[in-house]
Amino acid sequence: MHFSVDNFDKLDKFFRRNLINSVTGFKSLNLVGTQNNNGLTNLAPFSQVFHIGASPAYIGLLIRPDSVERHTLDNIEFTKFYTLNHVLSSFYKQAHQSSARYHVSEFEATGLTPEYSSLLPAPYVKEANIKIGLQFEQRNDIRLNGTILIIGSIQELFVPDDCIGEDGMIDLEKAGTITCSGLDTYHTTQKLARLSYAKPDKDLFEI
Amino acid sequence: MHFSVDNFDKLDKFFRRNLINSVTGFKSLNLVGTQNNNGLTNLAPFSQVFHIGASPAYIGLLIRPDSVERHTLDNIEFTKFYTLNHVLSSFYKQAHQSSARYHVSEFEATGLTPEYSSLLPAPYVKEANIKIGLQFEQRNDIRLNGTILIIGSIQELFVPDDCIGEDGMIDLEKAGTITCSGLDTYHTTQKLARLSYAKPDKDLFEI
User: Fold this and answer.
1) Which chain A residues are within 8 Å of B68, Cβ to Cβ?
2) Residue B32: its pLDDT value, please?
């Protein structure tokens, strides 16, 4: 099936939205935890989280301006702190449900449990295995369509002991982290292999 | 296991690199195809590709300035066109190998096959199922650490007929698309469910 720029405009709006949201491939799935100036907690699923740098350790979060995600943005800009919490298959339905437009805290609405560390004023999800605490560093507005790239510096990480290799690599599959595609589809994973560093004229091997 | 900003600096460099590269979760995996002004083709794996907007259809590509990915950036800026090609389990080792620092085309070096459409001067990977042709639109330099966000507009899409639903959602698993974690680990997926649009006070159902 071939779609080109000439017939994109003729596609049904929902068809196009699903098509373009699924065409980039599998995505990470994190619940972002924040709170507002009154201490009201907020939780929302994000599939657009990515690595910006290792030293200093920066993570990027892409936010659409016209969405329910707006509460998350307001809270990050006000309190300067937020958490990322990997989603497990044991609570992916609650994670999905947290995208609804609630007037109460999504923790309360979905039954997920807020949890705090002493380092920062943003709620973690107790049920998650891998958790990241971030401090807001920079907002980048993408002029092309108003999308906002938020960059945060990692303040702390929680990872189960038995899921970190000697070289620092996290075994996400062992930790139970799931992946997602499109706007609403969830998947577990099965490891094919970990491959050695690629060099010209050298054969790859599994590590 | 708990890491905090106070002890990040004491971590071994490679340990920290693996840790931070794996902590964001599963990632998309695309081979980016380009060519230079002499028609020399280039192919490189990228795990930092994401949805920027559906209408117009924009895709973002994150590029580290200090890497082999630099050839890709030069070619995109010179020719204004590039392709994204989903990686399948049948050629993920060749995709990984294409990250080596070759002086010849990575197509030639890895045995993957370049293929062209009439719409744009950048090579697709014939072996891929899902392919996206893009025109360069905007470069966003992230001041914090020199990372570069390239945004392109979709010019055309190739997707197998039997992998697109009536509502436009692509069945990535059926198409054979794989996912990756960290810098070097590859995974197939297994669908848990597709969930209905979340609304307050309404139960989710599988679709």
Assistant:
1) none
2) 98
Residue B128 distance to chain A (closest CA, Å): 13
Give dist(CA B28, CA A22) in Å, integer.
11
The pLDDT tens digits for B63-119 are 987 665 688 999 999 999 999 999 999 999 999 999 999 999 999 999 999 999 999
- What CATH number did the domain enclosing A114 receive? 2.30.110.10
User: Cα B147–B49–A139 angle (5° rounding)?
Assistant: 45
ipTM score assigned to the predicted complex? 0.95
Interface probe for A, chosen from B26, B91, B156, B205 (most Cβ of A below 10 Å), is B26
pTM value is 0.96
Residue of A14, A23, A135 for testing the chain B interface, max B β-carbons within 10 Å: A23
Residue A2 counted as domain residue: no
Locate A54 and state its tokens. Answer: 């290792």
Name the residue range of residue A177's domain: 22-187
Cβ distance of A50 and B50 shorter than 8 Å: yes
Q: Could you tell me how many helices (H) and strands (E) chain B has, helices first?
A: 6, 12
